[in-house]
């Protein structure tokens, strides 16, 4: 989807001290844009997580008698959808699915891709060649196409689109962590640790991970926005969540038919996707400059 | 003598139509001759004066956005379901038996098409004779005759015939399951025999349209080539056909039914599967007519000055119950309770008024409806009482799984409607879980039956049914000999009493007596609450106010020849 | 130079093969019997037997792959379940539409992105930069399928300026009107991406020593600007090349919203109808185009960059 985030992946700063992270946090805190985005995201995530507690209604119960009420109707602050279900409730519950489908694949890909990339970078040789060529092959597919191909073949559903998105996000993370590891590996302090007889596991844990964590995390954070848009997009074309599950992409699709009668309501799920994706992008930018990652 | 009587009875409907229509036809003809002709001539004159070379018919260009994702194949027995037949099947081609689509006010009946009359041999009720219409020509100029009819039947029934076409066979074979043999008697007479007595043959033959054998020969005996230069006998000719994009049809000015010669310049068909895109296309003036506008758009379309037309037609949108052991629906009290739990009036509102509340398999206005004892209505208290009797309550609810589809021909707005049913049933103590499948996948399971492993524990399938004739409306769902894989009795219903009624229908060649049997059968459907009767579609379509002369009949099909665009 | 090109081509071949392997496996990834996935439900025994033999469905996977690849190389991508037409003709038809749309969207994205990016980078840190960057990040964050819907409502339905859907009747200037909205929708994201890349690039180059050196040598601002552009060109080419590929492949949502009869709409139809042969064929073709575009970028890029040419 987004070529600069997915296709390029070279990031290599070298800092490992304890004070580094607190420094990053300090710098991030001084950036008003990042803090605003962070606040918005935390609020949306918390609101979605606690949707059953705070939502005014039931996301699956509606009444035909009160369908497509405009925004601002008493009792239905954000109006009601095509089945008379409360939009605010649907958006909150929808956030659970949309955010999960955006964040979880990035987390999984970070875990899998990061591990594979670190191993490839650390071990080198044939292992490196095998892992990297495999990543290259997946890379040869444009990301949306690969996601659509996998989800399309597997069929619609939450798990299937989760798998599809994760597979799409793994190769770039392999690349980033591999190149970061390769750089760190040849540095003096790693050589020194090796010479002092430290085991491979200790070296990876203490020296490598400490040093590559920053750039890899920054990179992964930049994928969040892409993943959110892509996940909602899969649902939009019927490959992700299924009705009556509230999900922003799916809501956008089912509300399309109401766009002439209630344009504002029909636009709401899109606005949510935009806000979350924008916040993730800006926060990622802030994190990048706070970490001084190019 | 008996034979003579029979002919008049079958033709009875025809006579009715002719009487009822004479006025209209006469009016139309008068209109044409008195107003249109001079208008035509003057436009032509003006066109010549200003130097325009293309002569126009002044009927304008009608652009239609269909719900299909592809242009129906112009090979004859077209694809894309009933919509394909509506826009490509019955425009470019004709069947031996036609439908009277001229009135919005009465149920559609069969009328002569390429056959002027048909009859069954009273001595051997498996033998039918069709007299063909003389003087009819295909678009390529070749003659339509008995040879052509036999050739077309072999096209879909005889695997060894050189013109056998797998694609058309797949579409047409299932429509004429009872035909055994067919032969030329003379140039204008065809004889068809059935495997067993089958009084419904005229209904079945109305589905089978005639492609031109001469044209097929001319293009090298190749159906793919035929698609590039199709030829039928219908009121429209194919001018151009681009798969997935558009088909341009022009009137067949030599059409055999002089009252049905279109004055349009062009009829353009476009496949626009996405409902919102159809609405946008209509509103931005890219098309003049869209099929199935989504219910949420109807009010705003009306507000914006578009015409919304609709009409009841033989169609039912039910939940088809599995009656296999272990299914909660084997208990008639549960079936009745479900029927009493559905707020059909609320659903109608949800669909912008675009449905008829179902009280049985056929609309209450149908003459097959009969007089059932059980009244299908919204009464959740009665539903709860019935369920309590059956040992069900909100503390001890039943759980059922229903196979549904997100879209599909005749499925109306399945997600919306099913979500409402889910809510309604939950209120009386029936919890519903959905198994959403693609329309084709749902149909595949519908053919495989409730016992198929692919049913995966579901006890309901939600396929909507076209119910033009007694077989498609009733018999195929409940005939014990049609339990899969032999037929489409999905729920494994089996009742000797019902089977006896079916036998009577097939052997009853007197239409009036036949209707009586069908009524008894339908009463049994309702009294046993064999289906969850939900809705009848009204085939909504939206068009600009420039579209004139369209009659929305009580049918899936429609006559496009009367339409003009200002 | 020829050696370099040969090397790149030699590297692209195994990648293309691997891509085809993944596309081949899609049919086996899908739940259900492969045979039932590539044939209509009511196929007769003759067709079933013929298909079995054609794809060697009773043979081991590698043999099946080889058979399938042989078919593909000879231009036989199978038959669409839904239409019964050869998949290859369906794709060929749609490809022209997608290519044209992607090309226009790329150019649009490039022009807008380069302008905004250059301006933002050149006046790094000023209000102009902030506005340009805000526009850019919005472009990157917008769900484009939603943007498309909004554009249709405004420009087709309310203002009645532009068509809402489809591609018009024939290949003429008239068709451009149909392309405006889809192209803008499709270009939003690359425009944002290119703005961000170009901005960083320009700002970066401006800070480089050679610019200070040029200034010291007394070159005018315009001359320095041209110099900067020249230095940024190779990267820009890479970005555009890759974007074109992404747009070709990524237009599924936009083409669906606008019913643009390209490969994206074809993919969407294939998914809706579970037309696996069509899905497989379309993905294969798009992925191979993507591989080819990457190869092209790899070959063309050094021609604009003296440093890389030497290396």
TrEMBL record, chain A:
Keyword Transport among UniProt keywords: yes
Principal subcellular localization: membrane
Ranges of residues in domain ABC transmembrane type-1: 95-284
CDD domains in the cross-refs: TM_PBP2 (cd06261)
Membrane topology classification: Multi-pass membrane protein
GO CC annotation terms, alphabetical: plasma membrane
Signal peptide start-end: none
One family name in Pfam for this protein: BPD_transp_1
Residue intervals passing through the bilayer: 35-55, 102-126, 138-169, 189-209, 216-239, 259-283
Keywords on record: Cell membrane, Membrane, Transmembrane, Transmembrane helix, Transport
Compartments, record wording: Cell membrane
InterPro entries with a match to the protein in the record: BP-dependent_transpt_permease, MetI-like, MetI-like_sf, OppC_N
GO biological process: transmembrane transport
UniProt record similarity statement: Belongs to the binding-protein-dependent transport system permease family.
PANTHER family for the chain: OLIGOPEPTIDE TRANSPORT SYSTEM PERMEASE PROTEIN APPC, PEPTIDE ABC TRANSPORTER PERMEASE PROTEIN
UniProt protein name: ABC transporter permease
Organism: Nitratireductor aestuarii
TrEMBL record, chain B:
GO biological process: peptide transport
Organism: Nitratireductor aestuarii
SUPFAM superfamilies from the UniProt entry: Periplasmic binding protein-like II
Domain Solute-binding protein family: 110-474
PANTHER family cross-referenced by the UniProt entry: ABC TRANSPORTER SUBSTRATE-BINDING PROTEIN (PTHR30290:SF83), PERIPLASMIC BINDING COMPONENT OF ABC TRANSPORTER (PTHR30290)
Family: Belongs to the bacterial solute-binding protein 5 family.
Pfam families, alphabetized: SBP_bac_5
Record GO terms (molecular function): peptide transmembrane transporter activity
Localization of this protein: Periplasm
GO CC annotation, single: ATP-binding cassette (ABC) transporter complex
Listed name of the protein: ABC transporter substrate-binding protein
Record InterPro entries: Peptide/Ni-bd, SBP_5, SBP_5_dom
Automatic annotation (TrEMBL), chain C:
Family affiliation: Belongs to the binding-protein-dependent transport system permease family.
Limits of the ABC transmembrane type-1 domain: 95-301
Keywords from the UniProt entry: Cell membrane, Membrane, Transmembrane, Transmembrane helix, Transport
Signal peptide start and end residues: none
KW Membrane (keyword) present: yes
Intracellular or extracellular location(s): Cell membrane
Name this protein carries in UniProt: ABC transporter permease
GO CC term (a single one): plasma membrane
Molecular function terms from GO: dipeptide transmembrane transporter activity
Membrane topology: Multi-pass membrane protein
Transmembrane regions: 9-30, 99-123, 135-159, 179-198, 236-258, 278-300
Primary subcellular site in the record, as a coarse category: membrane
């Amino acid at each position: 989807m987004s070529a600069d985030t997915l296709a390029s992946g070279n990031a290599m700063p070298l800092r490992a001290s304890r004070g580094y992270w607190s420094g990053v946090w300090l710098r991030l805190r001084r950036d008003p844009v990042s803090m605003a985005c962070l606040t918005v995201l935390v609020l949306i995530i918390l609101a979605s997580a606690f949707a059953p507690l705070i939502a005014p209604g039931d996301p699956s119960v509606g009444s035909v008698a009160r369908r497509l009420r405009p925004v601002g109707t008493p009792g239905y602050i954000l109006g009601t959808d095509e089945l008379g279900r409360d939009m605010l409730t649907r958006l909150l519950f929808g956030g659970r699915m949309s955010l999960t489908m955006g964040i979880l694949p990035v987390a999984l890909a970070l875990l899998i891709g990061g591990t594979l990339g670190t191993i490839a970078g650390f071990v080198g040789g044939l292992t490196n060649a095998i892992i990297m060529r495999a990543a290259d092959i997946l890379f040869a597919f444009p990301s949306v196409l690969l996601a659509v191909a996998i989800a399309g073949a597997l069929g619609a559903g939450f798990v299937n689109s989760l798998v599809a998105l994760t597979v799409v996000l793994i190769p770039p993370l392999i690349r980033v962590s591999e190149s970061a590891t390769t750089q760190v590996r040849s540095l003096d302090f790693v050589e020194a640790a090796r010479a002092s007889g430290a085991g491979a596991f200790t070296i990876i844990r203490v020296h490598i991970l400490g040093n590559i964590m920053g750039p890899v995390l920054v990179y992964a954070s930049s994928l969040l926005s892409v993943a959110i848009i892509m996940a909602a997009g899969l649902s939009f074309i019927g490959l992700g969540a299924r009705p009556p599950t509230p999900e922003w992409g799916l809501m956008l699709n089912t509300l399309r038919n109401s766009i002439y009668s209630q344009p504002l309501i029909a636009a709401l799920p899109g606005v949510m996707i935009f806000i979350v994706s924008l916040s993730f992008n800006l926060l990622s930018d802030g994190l990048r400059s706070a970490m001084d990652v190019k | 003598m008996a034979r003579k009587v029979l002919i008049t009875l079958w033709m009875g409907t025809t006579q009715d139509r002719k009487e009822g229509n004479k006025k209209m036809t006469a009016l139309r003809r008068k209109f044409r001759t008195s107003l249109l002709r001079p208008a035509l001539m003057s436009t032509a004159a003006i066109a010549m004066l200003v130097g325009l070379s293309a002569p126009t018919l002044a009927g304008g260009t009608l652009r239609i956005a269909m719900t299909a994702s592809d242009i129906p194949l112009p090979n004859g027995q077209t694809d894309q379901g009933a919509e394909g037949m509506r826009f490509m099947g019955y425009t470019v081609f004709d069947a031996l038996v036609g439908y009277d689509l001229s009135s919005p006010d009465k149920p559609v009946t069969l009328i002569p098409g390429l056959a002027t009359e048909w009859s069954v041999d009273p001595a051997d009720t498996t033998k039918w004779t069709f007299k063909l219409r003389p003087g009819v020509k295909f678009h390529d100029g070749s003659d339509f005759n008995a040879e052509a009819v036999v050739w077309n039947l072999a096209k879909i029934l005889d695997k060894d015939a050189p013109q056998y076409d797998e694609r058309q066979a797949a579409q047409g074979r299932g429509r004429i399951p009872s035909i055994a043999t067919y032969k030329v008697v003379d140039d204008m007479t065809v004889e068809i025999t059935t495997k067993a007595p089958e009084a419904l043959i005229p209904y079945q033959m109305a589905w089978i349209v005639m492609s031109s054998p001469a044209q097929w020969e001319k293009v090298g005996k190749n159906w793919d080539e035929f698609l590039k230069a199709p030829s039928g006998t219908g009121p429209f000719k194919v001018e151009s056909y681009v798969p997935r994009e558009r088909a341009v049809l022009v009137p067949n000015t030599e059409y055999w039914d002089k009252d049905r010669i279109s004055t349009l310049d062009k009829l353009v068909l476009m496949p626009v599967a996405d409902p919102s895109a159809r609405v946008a296309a209509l509103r931005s003036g890219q098309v003049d007519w869209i099929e199935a506008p989504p219910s949420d758009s109807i009010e705003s379309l009306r507000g914006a000055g578009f015409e919304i037309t609709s009409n009841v037609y033989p169609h039912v949108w039910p939940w088809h119950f599995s009656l296999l052991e272990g299914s909660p629906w084997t208990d008639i009290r549960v079936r009745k309770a479900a029927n009493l739990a559905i707020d059909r009036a609320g659903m109608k509102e949800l669909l912008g008024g675009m449905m008829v509340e179902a009280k049985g398999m056929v609309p209450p206005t149908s003459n097959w409806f009969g007089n059932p004892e059980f009244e299908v209505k919204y009464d959740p208290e009665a539903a709860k009482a019935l369920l309590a009797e059956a040992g069900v309550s909100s503390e001890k609810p039943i759980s059922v799984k229903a196979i549904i589809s997100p879209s599909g021909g005749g499925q109306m707005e399945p997600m919306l409607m099913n979500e409402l049913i889910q809510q309604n049933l939950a209120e009386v103590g029936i919890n519903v879980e959905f198994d959403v499948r693609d329309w084709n996948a749902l149909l595949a399971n519908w053919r495989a039956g409730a016992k198929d492993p692919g049913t995966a524990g579901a006890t309901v399938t939600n396929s909507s049914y076209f119910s033009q004739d007694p077989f498609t409306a009733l018999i195929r769902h409940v005939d014990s000999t049609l339990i899969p894989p032999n037929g489409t009795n999905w729920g494994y219903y089996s009742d000797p009493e019902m089977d006896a009624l079916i036998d009577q229908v097939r052997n009853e060649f007197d239409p009036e007596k036949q209707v009586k049997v069908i009524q008894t059968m339908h009463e049994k459907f309702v009294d046993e609450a064999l289906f969850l009767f939900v809705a009848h579609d009204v085939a909504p379509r939206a068009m600009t106010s420039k579209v004139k002369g369209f009659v929305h009949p009580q049918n899936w099909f429609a006559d496009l020849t009367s339409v003009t665009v200002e | 130079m020829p050696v370099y090109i040969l090397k790149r081509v030699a590297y692209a071949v195994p990648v293309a093969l691997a891509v085809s392997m993944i596309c081949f496996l899609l049919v086996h990834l899908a739940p259900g019997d492969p045979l039932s996935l590539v044939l209509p439900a009511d196929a007769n025994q003759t067709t079933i037997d013929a298909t079995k033999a054609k794809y060697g469905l009773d043979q081991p996977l590698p043999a099946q792959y080889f058979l399938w690849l042989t078919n593909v190389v000879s231009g036989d991508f199978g038959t669409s379940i839904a239409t019964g037409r050869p998949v290859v003709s369906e794709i060929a038809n749609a490809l022209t539409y997608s290519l044209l749309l992607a090309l226009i969207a790329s150019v649009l994205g490039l022009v807008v992105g380069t302008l905004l990016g250059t301006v933002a980078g050149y006046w790094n840190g000023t209000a102009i930069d902030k506005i340009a960057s805000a526009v850019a990040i919005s472009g990157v964050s917008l769900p484009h399928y939603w943007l498309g819907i909004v554009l249709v409502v405004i420009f087709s339905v309310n203002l009645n300026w532009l068509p809402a859907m489809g591609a018009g009747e024939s290949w003429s200037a008239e068709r451009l009107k149909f392309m405006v909205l889809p192209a803008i929708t499709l270009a939003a994201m690359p425009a944002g991406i290119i703005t961000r890349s170009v901005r960083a690039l320009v700002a970066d180059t401006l800070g480089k020593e050679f610019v200070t050196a040029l200034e010291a040598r007394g070159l005018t601002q315009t001359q320095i600007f041209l110099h900067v552009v020249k230095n940024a060109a190779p990267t820009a080419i890479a970005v555009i090349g890759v974007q074109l590929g992404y747009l070709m492949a990524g237009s599924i949502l936009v083409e669906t919203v606008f019913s643009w009869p390209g490969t994206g709409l074809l993919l969407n139809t294939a998914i809706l109808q579970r037309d696996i042969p069509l899905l497989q064929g379309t993905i294969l073709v798009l992925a191979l185009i993507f591989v080819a575009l990457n190869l092209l970028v790899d070959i063309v890029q050094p021609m604009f960059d003296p440093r890389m040419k030497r290396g």
